[in-house]
Amino acid sequence: MSAPQHWVEAVLPHVLAPDAIVLIDGRSGSGKSTLAQQVVEHAARQGVSVQLIHMEDIYPGWDGLDEAIRILAADIIGPLAAGRAARWPTYDWHRDAPGPQQTAQPGRPVLIEGVGALSADSAPQASWRVWLEAPADLRRRRALARDGELYHPHWGRWAQAEDAFIDRHRPAERADIIIEVGEKR
Fold first, then answer.
1. In the predicted model, is pLDDT for residue 151 greater than 70?
2. 8-state DSSP, 73
3. Cα-Cα-Cα-Cα dihedral of 29, 33, 35, 40, to 10°?
4. Is 95 helix (H, G, I), strand (E, B) or coil?
5. Nearest C-alpha neighbor of 142 from the set 4, 24, 32, 63
6. Record keywords: Transferase included (predicted)?
7. Is-contact 86 51, C-beta < 8 A?
8. Rounded to whole angstroms, how far apart are CA atoms 179 and 185?
9. Cα(63)–Cα(61) distance, integer angstroms
10. Distance between CA atoms of 176 and 129, rounded to whole angstroms?
11. Which of 61, 109, 137, 168 has the most other CB atoms within 10 Å of its CB?
């Protein structure tokens, strides 16, 4: 799967500044990771090294969306926006246990992708905000094709966490751009 070039071109200019903090959010299976990876690759071709942070590395398990949102705002975006290094815990999904600490340095652009990136606390500190909107059936097919058996038993539970996040934080309303995702992109 790849993101259309015009999506990459819509986001790319916003990650080229040294102090950029760009957020890409959307429900599971909407294409966030794919778009983020392609933006990072295009930036590298222009000589810009973007720090890519995946929310799925932060969630402390299937019920950890709220905690990851807190970590993102307090431990990652807050320090980076203030010109300080960010340090945060990760989660090891294979061991179902905390993983190693990660760091990000100020002075390099940062792109953060994943469900919960565009929260009420994170959005105001970001320089650019993207929301991906996709139909539920397409998202489910993509997510289950990507993560298969690991994700299947948790789909409903995770969808409820996404619903609660969207109701509470209204991420699409905080976005600078909304990208409509469909079968033919």
1. no
2. I
3. 180
4. coil
5. 32
6. yes
7. no
8. 10
9. 5
10. 5
11. 109
Question: pLDDT (tens digit, 9 = 90+) per residue, 134-146?
Answer: 877 776 776 667 6
Please give the tally of structural domains in the chain. Answer: 1
- CA dist 28 and 141 (Å) reads 10
- State what percent of residues in the chain have pLDDT above 70: 89
DSSP sequence for 141-155: HHHHHHHHHHHGGGH
Instruction: Let me know: does 35 contact 69? Beta carbons within 8 Å.
Output: no
CA distances 165 to 19, 88, 107, 174, Å, are 27, 21, 30, 13
Give the residue numbers spanning the domain of 139: 5-180
Please say whether the beta carbons of 27 and 58 come within 8 A: no
Closest CA to 185 of 146, 150, 145, 142: 142
Q: What is the pTM of this model?
A: 0.90
DSSP 30: S
In a domain, 185, yes or no: no
> In this structure, what CATH number is given to the domain that contains residue 67?
3.40.50.300
pLDDT digits (tens, 9 = 90+) for 67-77: 999 999 999 99
Which tokens in the block code for residue 126? 């970001």
CA–CA dist 13, 22 (Å, integer): 10
What residues have CB less than 8 Å from 111, skipping those under 6 apart? 15, 20, 22, 24, 36, 39, 40, 50, 51, 52, 53
51-54: strand order across its sheet: 51-54, 110-113, 21-26, 128-133, 177-180
